[in-house]
Amino acid sequence: MLSCSAFAFIIPDTAASPNYTSGSSASNTINATALQQQLYGMSNLSVPERQQEAFYLKINNLLNKPDLDNHSEALANILMANYHTLNGDIISAREYLSVAKPLVDTVQQVSLDRLYTYANIFVVRSEGHLEQAMEDAESLYADVKDIWSPNKLGDLILERAYITALTSQYKKSIELLDLALDYALKADDPYLISETYNVFGILYNFLNDHQSAIMYFEKAIDVMEKHPTLINNIYFYANLADSYAQVKQYDKANELIQKSHELAAAEGDMPLQALAHKVQARVHTSQENYLQALEELTLAKEVQEQSGEKLFGYELYTDFAYAYLKSGQIDKAEEHLNLAIESSESVAELDDFYLNKLRAEISAHRGDFEKAYKQLDISFSTYRESFNDNLTYVSNLSREQLDQERLAFENKLLEKENQLSSEFVEQYKEYSIWLVVLVCLLLLLLIICFWLISKYRRVAQKNEEMALTDNLTHLPNRRQVFRKLDSEHQKTALDKTIYSLIIFDIDHFKTINDRFGHRVGDKVINRLASITRHTLRENDTIGRISGEEFLIILPETQINDAIQIADRLNEQFANADFEDLAEGIHLTASFGVTEYTPDDENLDMVINRADRLLYKAKKEGRNRVVSTSNDSSYGEDGEN
Q1: Contact (Cβ atoms closer than 8 angstroms) between residue 120 and residue 99
Q2: Where are the alpha helices (H) located in 145-249, listed in sequence order?
């Protein structure tokens, strides 16, 4: 699959540079330019990569940064809109594009305008404005066909083919699908290949050639399932289920619909959930289970309205109308047919043919056979005049012919590759021995360098660990734990979160050393460190900052939770059994507990507050936890 790193530097498709205010420093300009290059690089990622949550998180974090320049902010909003479009949330996509549009107009940069147009095409199509989407797609392709990468061009051409099929221009749609498949094969993009097969299947479903549609949907699923890195596209399964339902293979259809529902729920894709309900309704309709069909259509309508998808509203209304008609509810059938007519201004003429056919059936049920006959005549005339040429063309393109075209294209690529290979082999044959020798020498040099670097890294790592680790407890020493505390403090201040701090000291530890000796005292400290490590959470940090004094960092922890941890430690110290070290050892500890607040201008204020609370605990008799929460002297002014 052709893809690029999200942080690769991609040169935009124009030499124009964004405008900056005269007061901006050179470093700010460089940073803004680098950020824009990264964002353009992210726009060139493959579709599955742009659907991932990691892509969303990177853009969302960027949008939360202050002082973002207009160009970068516009790019970020466009990429966020594209993410929501690919994940079926058209409403959110439109919101982000609405934010981006005035920024795009302000920046007036060609590559930015093109990227906005690209993202907007998919949203406009989903909103049902097919003519505008087609016009924008054709204009954009003319501008970028010699600039953009094959996978991105293939995605744009595939969208044009899909819109063209929706407007019943089947001959043109076939030509565009051929071009899209050429781009997909050139890019070696499994996602784009499978999507192209999917649109081939949709086209054949429009033409009621359901066996051909089944073949292409199965080819799309086969490509997708051979590449686990692709996000499961339940459109494939739902479309295949619809085709099986048309040929009355209901067991296969129901199995695929169930799979579609499961994948839709897992992906949280509302338009795809609506499609699965709609296909299930068609299965029920084919089996004359009209009440169940109406229930599924109601669910599809609810989900589709939540997602903001407007393009296929007329399909729902016509399905409603047909189900009501077959269940004998003629008034409701006519009501939904009128709704379908209202929402079908930009739909394909084939659907206009079907709407006239439904009108005729409703008129016949009401006994108005003369009107029904006239409507059927209009339906037939529309079908004959609008589709004769397209249907003749498509019917001549059999499945075998299409496969032969694909094979011929692949053979041409192979032939060209072999020709180039022969030329280069002859040209460089005489240098092969020297090349092998040179490669061997380089490999030997690389091995020696790798060995020296590895050895140096091991020594350096060991020295660094020794410098930052307490020799007795193997905990972070004073330098390391304060370094981690400083990092947590800066992160907390930036993210506007919270952390808590515990400083504790073993009570009367000098007495233990004097009575039992320093060797036993060291073992007691080690035992206490082990108890503390097993009590704390995985992301908490404990370090030894002096002889019997320890510091604990509790990320994303409020003061009440920190107090509970300190109380638990105090209880475990008091109940700990040290008889295996020496008889008669019992120890307690004093704890000072505080939390970071926005009023703390620097780290020293937090540390000093915890130190004073520890001193207060000792002064009040030791063996206790004193915190800013339970110490009234910290409640009024924030300082003692």
Answers
A1: no
A2: 150-166, 170-187, 190-206, 210-225, 234-246
In the predicted model, what is the mean pLDDT of residues 366-395? 65
The answer to whether the beta carbons of residues 627 and 594 sit under 8 Å apart is: yes
Amino acid letter for position 216: Y
Kindly list the distances between the CA atom of residue 38 and the CA atoms of 11, 45, 52, 102, in Å, as whole numbers in the listed order: 9, 11, 17, 22
**3: helix, coil or strand?**
coil
What is the spatial distance between Cα 204 and Cα 211, in angstroms, rounded to a whole number?
8
346 pLDDT more than 50: no
538 is catalytic: no
Q: pLDDT at position 105, please? A: 93
Q: Within a 10 A sphere around the Cβ of 211, how many other Cβ atoms? A: 11
Instruction: Please work out, in degrees rounded to the nearest 5, the angle formed at the alpha carbon of residue 91 by the alpha carbons of 87 and 97.
Output: 90
Residues 37-64, buried b or exposed e (16+ Cβ, 10 A)? Answer: bbbbbbbbbbbbbbbeeebbebbeebee
Beta carbons of 162 and 198 less than 8 angstroms apart: no
Q: For position 125, what pLDDT does the model report?
A: 87
Q: Please, is 111 exposed, middle or buried when counting C-beta atoms within 10 Å of its C-beta (0-12, 13-18, 19+)?
A: buried
The pLDDT, as a whole number, for residue 386 is 57
> How far apart are alpha carbons 45 and 535 in whole angstroms?
44
Identify the active-site residue in 548, 556, 583, 595: 548
Whose structure tokens read 């109308």? 321
Q: Give the pLDDT score at 388.
A: 55
Using the predicted structure, report yes or no on whether residue 239 has a pLDDT greater than 70: yes
Kindly state the average pLDDT of the residues 77-85.
91
Reference 227, options 44, 48, 102; nearest CA is 48
Q: Where residue 595 falls among pLDDT bands split at 50, 70, 90?
A: very high
**What Cα–Cα distance (Å) separates residue 26 from each residue in 20, 22, 30, 33, 440?**
10, 10, 6, 11, 46
Residue 352 has pLDDT above 90, yes or no: no
Dihedrals phi, psi of 6, to nearest 5 degrees: -65, -15
For every residue of 430-497, DSSP letters joined together read GGHHHHHHHHHHHHHHHHHHHHHHHHHHHHHHHHHHHHHB-TTT-SB-HHHHHHHHHHHHHHHHHHT-
d(CA 39, CA 111): 12
Banded pLDDT at 423 (limits 50, 70, 90): low
What b/e string do you get for 396-413 counting C-beta neighbours within 10 Å, with b at 16 or more?
A: eeeeeebeeeeeeeeeee
Question: Which helix (H) or strand (E) is 33 found in, with range?
Answer: helix 26-43
In which band, very low, low, confident or very high, does the pLDDT at 344 lie, cut at 50, 70 and 90? low
C-alpha distances out from residue 262 to 183, 301, 306, 353, 626, Å:
32, 19, 19, 35, 53
DSSP letter at 500 equals E
Q: Are 268 and 276 in contact (CB under 8 A)?
A: no
Strand partners, 552: 502, 542
